[in-house]
Structures are given as structure tokens and as C-alpha cells.
User: Fold these one by one.
Assistant:
Number 1:
Amino acid sequence: MIFSSAEIGYLNDQELGRLATVQPDGTLQVSPVGFRYDPDTEFIEIRGMNLARSRKFRNVLDNGRVAFVVDDVPSLQPRRVRCLEIRGPGEAVVLDAARANEFGGAVIRIKAERIISFGIDDPDQGPHELTPHNRNVS
Amino acid sequence: MIFSSAEIGYLNDQELGRLATVQPDGTLQVSPVGFRYDPDTEFIEIRGMNLARSRKFRNVLDNGRVAFVVDDVPSLQPRRVRCLEIRGPGEAVVLDAARANEFGGAVIRIKAERIISFGIDDPDQGPHELTPHNRNVS
């Protein structure tokens, strides 16, 4: 198991993640994306309308470099931030060429190699007592 | 004016942004950050406790490559995503060496060169009628 059960619950509950990619000229891009955790492969999967035509998809095809983060602010008083960052190679795949630009015809898959986890396994600790659960998982 | 008044209002209203940086070995990092829009310089400013010791600060010192995004989901039925992505060089500055690891002793500043804006200037249009307001601003 790469992710803890609390982390898997968190991934299943959150609406959006943010995917960072690198353009061929070396400049960065970051954008909100819908996503799904696949319990069989333990990959993060990103789909979407017109994904195969998107700049992020072409960036991943070009160089496979990605980082992905899911976070939220579950409390303002005291202010708490929860965060699960996943680093590792990304793979851009066209699953069905005839439907590449429909939802599900293309996918970006992320295989975690390093995880930065903060505030997810310790929901009841004070914000200043939290320690990140950082680890390599590859 | 780099940003529209609707975009400035959006930046002022949102709690978190996400900052993507590149580590010296070329791998990407992305994490949630508090931020402030500075109306005088039109820069995005990122501060935080221990910022000067953070990996993201050292990444920006190393190569200055950043991308930053603010987004939210204001409606689920129909599902709407608003998004303001800012690309441009980042600068990592220690403002007060004696207080570098306190809040405000160090800052990452982002100067927008390209803006990807979606759903912010047209709050009443249907999700499928929205067009991105993308432009170079440098």
C-alpha cells in the first residue's frame, strides 16, 4: 500500500487537484483538474473533455514531468491546511483514438514516487503540532 | 493594469493558491500557499513561517521558474470551475535576515508574464459557453 487509508479517503473526498507540468521551453504550468484514485494500480488518473488536445497532456507526452497536489482548509479558527502532494513520473495515454477528445478517451496517469502528506493522518492534532509524513514510495 | 478588476477581486477573496516550482534535479513540486496581491507592484507575494528554509524558496532562488494558480468550484450543479493561472519569473527575497524564518522576513514574488483566466470575468455564463481570457502581459 502506497497510501494510508486516511489518505485514500481524502483522495476520494476531494473535488479538485492541481497538476503542475513543464512546457517544452522549460516554463511551468499549473492548473486545477478533476482526478480519480485507482485502487487497483494505486495511480492518480486525470481525465477530461479535450484532454488529449490540452497543453498539459502534450507537456506530459513531451517530458513526463509532473507534480500533483490535493489540499483544503478544513478550519479557519484555528487555521488548518491539509495537503497531499504526489511526485513521480506522469504518463499521457490515448485509450481510444476515435474518442481521444471525449471524456475518458485519454488519461494522464501519475505513479507516486514521493509523497508529502500533511494533516491527513492526524486530524485532531493542533496545527502547530503537525509533522509532515514525507516518504519515498518507489 | 495587468489584471481586470474582477480578477483582482478574485485574488483578494481566495484563501489559498498553489505554487509550482522546479527542484535543482529538474523534478517538479507543487504546494498550497497563502498569498497576497500587491496593488502597487501588481506582483503576487507569498510569505509564510519558515519560508526561507522551505524547498520552494530554495527552488525559486535556484532557477526562478514558477507557475501559480488560484481556483475554486463555485457551483456543482451545473459544475463550474473558476481559475486564474499566472506564469512568469519568480524572485525569492530575504527582506530581513534576522527574521528570515518568521512570517514576512522572506517573500517569493511573482511577476505575471502570461495569464490564463477562466470563469472570473463572466460569472453568469453557462460553463460550456465560457472562453478562457488568455493573454501575455509582459
Number 2:
Amino acid sequence: MSLSKEEIADWFRQLQLHICSELESEDGKAKFEEDSWERPGGGGGHTRVIQHGNVFEKGGVNFSAVHGELTEPIMKALELNDRNFFATGVSIVIHPHNPFVPIIHMNVRYFELGDGTYWFGGGIDLTPHYVQTDDAKFFHQQLKNTCDRFDANYYPEFKRWADDYFFIKHRKETRGIGGIFFDRLKEDAGHSKQQIWEFVKAVGETFAPTYRSIVSRNKNASYTDSNLKWRNLRRGRYVEFNLVYDKGTKFGLETDGRIESILMSLPENASWVYDFRPTKNSLEADTLNRLIKGVDWAAG
Amino acid sequence: MSLSKEEIADWFRQLQLHICSELESEDGKAKFEEDSWERPGGGGGHTRVIQHGNVFEKGGVNFSAVHGELTEPIMKALELNDRNFFATGVSIVIHPHNPFVPIIHMNVRYFELGDGTYWFGGGIDLTPHYVQTDDAKFFHQQLKNTCDRFDANYYPEFKRWADDYFFIKHRKETRGIGGIFFDRLKEDAGHSKQQIWEFVKAVGETFAPTYRSIVSRNKNASYTDSNLKWRNLRRGRYVEFNLVYDKGTKFGLETDGRIESILMSLPENASWVYDFRPTKNSLEADTLNRLIKGVDWAAG
């Protein structure tokens, strides 16, 4: 039996619940609260938010499965030939308290048109306030392991794509240490639709154990007020990326999406200080130097 | 003798220094620090920033006078026929500490091309964290008085323009209580270039006494932690407007402008809370209800 959009949406919804449960275990205190919403044009979603936990200050794990008719400008922008669309996915951003625990983002999604056109997209990327070599290597190695199970070209290709995508052009800085990013993935000579779906599921399943491992290693690290100030400056950069460049955010704002679900990606607190320059040889200066494209974290 | 671009730039630079001196007097503690910078393509500017004052947490008063060659995409977007440009102006954003002192923004600018095309633009708008009727009426009345000295149509036209421009579409909220906004103002049957310049100068001169009056009335108001939280949420909205909609910011980011001067408009601290809803009948709820277009503050 061929893969149906309902099957994909059901699996994504289960992934959302599973990830929330894993994050609650890691936090030990806060629970996700769920808002269910309907989209006037068709479908809806469940937005799950965790706030003021032991570990997580603010985080969102969104599921949606929406359908309806695309507008002409969007059809044109996406170069599509059919108006009827279905889209489902899970989208996550987690902002931890501790400056030594990284921000993480994941998105897995499926898009289908009435004429049978479809594609998968997604990615996971990590934004440490302080770049730590062991965490960065571990993170990229986990992503590479998942990719390599399906196609040896996936990791190098999708890693480069993430470097290019999660880039704050006006700062000439990457948002964090990248990860993987892919879009418009569909069957080809080497992969069936089912195989791509298995890959997307594997990416989704990589999220919880990978992030929990990084969180648990760092969540009890001690920190100073100066570390918190730097954390908030880095969160400011996160806000800049999401409001200026992030395609999902822009698409949501332009298509009158559910604002609170779209902007749950923004941190509880962010800060901007005029012309801040870290002290020479500080941890902060080291991080800035490492927010560049093309670092081969999974090497060796 | 006809008005030269040097004369305009010199006056803008003096306006910058005058406004900084007025704001320092109002603050009573902090002083502006000046960074002078050169633009690789031609010209430069002086960025003046005040931080951690008695009254002002973070504020910037920028002057620039730049020249060079426009790129093809920008010429096309602005519908221009000459590549050689000159642009000068003063741009201000002030974020006060006290939640009962409003954020203010002003911009006055002049643009000229090698073929003689020119225009003036500008505006002043007020963003109270709490909308207070007396302040709002006073602010709009001052702007109206200035406009009315030059053209009875200016205030109604430029007030409507500000309502439309300073609008956060995705929130369906105005950024604040508006003010005036105008662009591409040049000589016509009713106004010479000199007369328009006198109007632009008058707008610039309206800033300091008007804002000082509002600041001095509110700077000693007592406030609670809950007022500060609300202030930071409203600052979050300010960030959303500036990064998503503000044309000056977008233009600066896209043309590789001096980032620290462009983003000095962002507050030291901003906050986002998932689906925050003010208590019924609270001051916060009252403010939200008044962040709408079309309020005739200068009436009566």
C-alpha cells in the first residue's frame, strides 16, 4: 500500500508527543501545555509549549496538518501548477536557561499538491551560546550516522546546505554550528518515496537522544551573570535570523498564519548592546571565531 | 543662492549635536559617545549612542552623509534613472528605562541624484509602553502645529501615512500611537524646495522640546516588576517591526550598511512570552485596545 498523507501526519503527531515526553523527562519539572487550533482555510495543529522549567526556559514543539488552496503569488513563488495543497510537519525550537546548554531547532515536513507533486523537507541545527568542541563533534556525528544509513551523499550535501541557510548575512556569522538542512526531497533513480520517508523519520528520531545527551552533559554547569548577558546577546542574534531570514517564519507571517505558533521560536529574553566586543582570548571571542561556514565537525 | 547638499548635511549634523545635548540634559547622568565611520563607497557618518543613563537605557542618534553609486536592483526598486547618489539624514531611536516613558523615533533625510532628482523624507512617531491620553494628545498636537505652519494638508496626510507605515501587520497592531511620516517630498506648484527644507528643519526642531516634555512628565513615575515585564514585551514588538517591516533597516541590511548603526534601534532587553494576554480591564489591555489606526489624537 502506498504511503498516504494521513499516515505521514499521524506519525508526525506521534513524534511530537514522543519528543515532548523526552524533553519533560530531561527537564524534570515543567510540562508542555497544548493549544489546539484550527486553520480557517482547512486543517489545524497542536502547539505545545514548555516554560520556566528546571532546564528549559521556553520551548515549543509544533505539529500541524493543514490543507486548502494556495494563493496565486505563492504558487508563482514556489513554481507550482496546482492550487490544492496539503502540508504537515513538526517544528521545534528550545531555549534553555543555562548558557552552556545550546538552543536547538528541528523541522521535518511533508508537502503535497492535488496533482500528485510532493516533497519532504527538514533539518536539525544547534546554536550553542558557547561553542564546545566535544558537543559540536558529537552532534554532527549523530547527524552523519543517521544520514549515512540512507545515502553517503546526504550528510555532506545537507551539512553544506545548513551552513548556507543558517547564516546571518548582515553579521557575517553562522547562527550556530549548523547541522543538516534539506528541502524538496522526492523519489529519484536512487530512492523511493518510502525510502525518503524512512530517512525523514530517522531524522525526527535522532532529535531526542542527541539533544538529551548534550543537555544532560551541560545542564548543571555553573555560570556567571556575564555568561547570562552573553547568552542574551546570542539570543538577540537568533531573533535577527528568525525575523529577517527564516523562510518558515516569513512564510507564516506573510500568509497570516497563527502568530503565537510561528513566533514561539523567539526566546523569553533577548538583548542588544551597541557594538559589543568580547574580551580578547575570552570564551565569547572563541565562540565568535567559530561561527563560520565549512567547519568539518564530523571529521576524524 | 540655491540650497546645496552640503548645507543640508551641515544642518543635519548640527541638529544631531543639539538633540544629543538636549537628551543629555534631560537624562542628567549619561553622555552620548560618538563613533565616526567611513563608508567604503563614499562618505560616512557619526553614530552617537547613550547607554545606562538615569532615564535612557539605550538610545542612538545617527548622522550620516554618504555618496556613491547605486546598484542596478536598487535603482530599479526605487525607479531611478541615475546611478550617482548622495544621501544625508539624522535617525533617532530612544529606549527609556521607565515603562511610563515612551520609546521615540525620528528620521529626517535628504536624497539627491546626479541628474538633479531629489527628495526629502522623514517622520516622528511615539511608542508608549502604556498609552496615556494626555501625552498622546500633546504629542500629536505638537506635530500638527509644526505641520500647519507650512501646509494644512500636511498633518492629516502625514498622520495617516504614519498610521499605515508603523503597523505590525502580523499582530494587527500599530507599533505605537503613530505620528507623522512622509517621503519623496519635493517642490511642486505650492511649495519651493526651500519651503520644503524649512518644513523638514521644523520637524527636526520639534523633536527635542516635544520629547523632553513627555519624558519629564513621566520619568519619575513609580513602576512595578509587572510594568517592566510589559515594557519588555512591547520592546519585543518594536524588534518585530524593525526587523520585519522597517524600510530603513531592511535597506541597510541589504546594502551591507554599518550594522551597529542600523541596529542601534534595538532595545537592550526585549521579551517574548507565548500567547501573553493581559488581564481584563488592566492598563495593558487598555493599551492593546488603543494600538489601532485612525485615532484622531489632535482633535478637540
